[in-house]
Records
---
Amino acid sequence: MNRRPPRWLLLLAVASAAIALIPFGYLLLRISDAGWDVVWSVLSRPRTWEVALNSLSLTVAVAASCLLIGIPSAWLVSRARLPLRGVWLVLLALPLAVPSYVAAYAWLALFPGMSGFGGAWLVLTLVSTPYVVLPVAAAFRASDAGAEEVARSLGASPWRAFRRAGLPQVLPAAAAGTLLAAIYTLSDFGTVAIMRYDAFTRAIYASYRASFDRTSAAVLALLLVVLALVFVLGEQASRGSAQRWRTGSGTARQGSPVPLGGWRWPALIGLGGLTFVALGVPTYSLLRMLITSASANTVDVGSLTSAAAATISVSAIGAVIAVLLALPVGILAARYRGAAVRATETGAFVSHVLPGVVVGLSLVFFTLSVVPAVYQTVVVVGFAYGVLFLPKALGSVRTAMAAVPPVLEQQSRSLGRGPAATFVRVTVPLIWTGVLAGGVLAMLTAMKELPATLMLRPTGMETLATQIWRHTEVADYAGAAPYAAALLVLASIPAFWLSRVVSGPRLTDGASDSIPAERDLAELEVRV
Amino acid sequence: MTPGVQLRGVSAGYDGVEVLHGVDLTVRSGTLTAVLGASGCGKSTLLRVVAGFLRPSAGEVEVAGRTVAGPGRHVAPERRRVGIVPQEGALFPHLDVAGNIGFGLPRRGRAARVAELLDIIGLPAMERARPHELSGGMAQRVALARALAPAPDVVLLDEPFSALDVSLRASVRAEVITALKACDATAVLVTHDQDEALSIADEVAVLRAGSIVQVAAPRQIYEHPVDRDLAVFLGDCNLLAADRTPAGTLTCILGELPATVPFDAGAGVAMLRPEHIDARPGTGASATVAQLSYHGHDVLLDITLANGSNVKSRMLAGVDTPAPGDRVNLHVIGV
């Protein structure tokens, strides 16, 4: 931990971070080229502030509803005596697997009148409630029931004990989860576009399409990035305090499940209702559309296969790029400290703040004016994925590397193996599953990506996501159904593999010393 | 004979903070030297310097007569022929026991050497076991076998028993010592446990705040520590005001002490271990037992003398053990 990183590793990591910074850097360059008066004219338009207000009010509304639904649900599945507790937790987590635009499309197909704020609010709440439920449930499980018991022994009523001793233990996790939901809402393109709600992402896409006004798209994009940055910083801060929360070492003792008594049926009805709207309705709608489309014999098997093939190949390219960029940065960040290391890691994490629509827009500018040869090619789509999902791959690589105690590498050196042989014989066998998981995770997320794909894909190439979009845009809901079903099936394969890798046994005992809540948060990020 | 390890004026540290200040240490070939010190005194840093994980900022390190670190010279860890057994074993989790022990061996003859070492550490037929299936003591023995396998010139052991249960520690310790002797290995063991250092080492080197205080055989260092702090660090002791007589003996409140009792002429203090004071009714300075703490095999008595000063006495527990309040007479034995 004390040594300076080898120069070649630092160079590779800096290069990776620099590559990851291209979209953001080019966006800034483009805006500064346009000049301050142009920026000012965009900022002084009432329309700009209308869009900002729209985005913010949707974000706040979704965050609030996620929090209000999330905490009681999390408590029920982690603390209450409930039949089939494990099943409920899975059902509450499952909406994460549904891309937001698929959920939006499914709802709109059933209720064509529900577009606008209400529709976007409902759909985004349903798909992002798991961001609150999972970390809070984990925090409830990890929190020490002892604190509540002590409160009871000091004369507090059960409700007061919960409020004063139980609830405070999960608040940091709830705050982190709510902020994740907010970030997701702010950068989501699919739902607001399908629901025709004028949030930032939709406005950026619209002014990009109106190709005479690309600078205003860039300014809007920058504004969105600044807003997202505020939320990301808040999320990181609250996650930090979530880690500091437990006092003392040793295993937190689980309290015995709380009997619900007369509240049992209302609780079950609530959870059942939530599952019904979050999973049941979209599934029903999708099946209905699928049957309509199958019975009308309108399923175009040829374009379905080519869209699936395009989805797999482009997202695989993106995953490879993401892992290649993540490897040097992840190894560096796990092993060394210092200003240079921190700067590199922060640079690589910048994509956290970049919504897909922003990366798409910036790469359109970049390819057109710097490398026109790759404009609208598979390469640039893969590159966009690589940059967008670098943080996911980086998290996995870093975790895998951090789980390898440096003492193992020192052992190998003492036993006569040089640095290269040590890397091949000790480090690689220990990190490869983690690295692979990072790649699969990046690929899984890339398969569902919509806005950057829409803006960057080669003319004539359609992925499953863009096909869903194309059909939904012209209200051909039945036509979109086969693509949506195919996407859900395809995405579930890597998701299933990942859930087994992530929850499988750890390689070393040393890796399991993080507290459960922290691990579940990391796991959540893996799934998202 | 060439020493197994020789340190000359070694200083080292991290990020500009010096932890070791000019350490000199010679470890004779084929012996076990314990480096004893409180936590944070630089013991692990010393091992890291010898192993080659840390470059000393000054001084020289020789292993079996070869200079491995010194001005302008730094031999990489893999070329030092120095084995190391870290605190918690640190077995490679992706390899089985045979894979771990054979890690540093060439392919030729690997299997035979692994079998030989498994015999030495008393775990035959465990080749295929995975590290997570081993108990703490087994893992520690496998880690030792792994370090011994390439027949290194010296083996370094970093608090190898501190992670083990107390009940297990003694037996694992004995097995490790047996294995080291069987391989005729030169070994340096660092520990913060005085009993451990005194009971297993051929020589004990005490490290305090990055400097060597004394290097000597266990009995020598326990009975004749070079200063008061070391005397206290190595075990309970009585520090009694004393004067040297013309004949060379010492006089103190307990009477006349032989010249062999450690005496700090500057402070006028003599050092007596509690086990050297016998407290029973009989002859000698009279005193009263103030407190007794019972340890099973022995008792530690806190005794108040007539002039109000206190001494400690350790005696075997038995039917004649005095009780608090009893009047006893103190006499010095075994020095």
---
Amino acid sequence: MSIFLTIINRKFKNIAGTRYERILRNYKEFFLTEEELSLPVIKSILMPVDRSTRNVPEEIYEVLSACEDAEVTVVYIMSEDACALIRQTLGEEASREFRQKEEEAGRELLERIARSLEDSGLKVRTRMFFGNKSEDVIRLSRERDLLVIPRLYGSEITKTRSISPVVMKIVHHVDIPVIVY
Amino acid sequence: MKILVLVDGSKWSQKAALHAIALARKNKSKVILFSVLDRKEAKAIAFSMTMRSDKLEEMERFEEQVWREMKKSVKEIMADMLNFCHRQGVNCSIKITEGNTKEKILSEANSGEYSLVVMGAYGKSGKTRIGSLLEDVVGLIKPPTMIVR
């Protein structure tokens, strides 16, 4: 019967009379309350990128340019697990080489995206570190208003799905709006 | 820029619309409020309700009644949202269609007209789990897709 809920919401005060407060409390996850009926303001944006991010579509810059005065943190997280695996299987030298190549790729990507974001009038910060892509994005999202993530984030090797399992995990666990591109 | 908002009448789709309106106000975009009416939903409600009340003979009549209410309800919700958009100074229009929800959404979202698709993370059953529709469509929508909580 959930289809009727929005109608009840609108006609609520007349139907429920003095029981308004109690019903509102019990059914709050179905109602958009008057307090919630305000336009959201986005001040802080998290934008994780990795090797799957060849190009950020023009539409993303256009959308983000609407978030006036927002600060975008572009973050390049390199997989600590991949690095450890290479060290265990191929040795220290191969691991060092992997780290170096990852850092070079990350720096180049961060600089390119930061330039385009600044051209759209946004304040930009960049970060690069070794960690766990899903866990760290979820953690960093807690202090942000919006997450903007490529749909193949975390799956630069296998591209068999239209959206990566890492992105689906992140979408399930963050509490802020997410733009998937 | 044109923004497509998927509206299913839930609190989450209304929140999605608020985000679309906020973005559209800033960069003068057009907002399209889009809703799909699926007859199967009316059938499911009619079946579930009549099974519980042992009034199977009234199932079809009840289905018709639910279907009428669904159509009326969507029109009312969309009209309310349209008014809200206009009060915020946002260029907005509504589009209501009938058929399979997933197919209609994908066909509209991937028509090449839109720069952004905005949808709620949860469905009409509330914040129990990520909406199954979202899991079905989000990877198949070509434009960037905003998922709102």
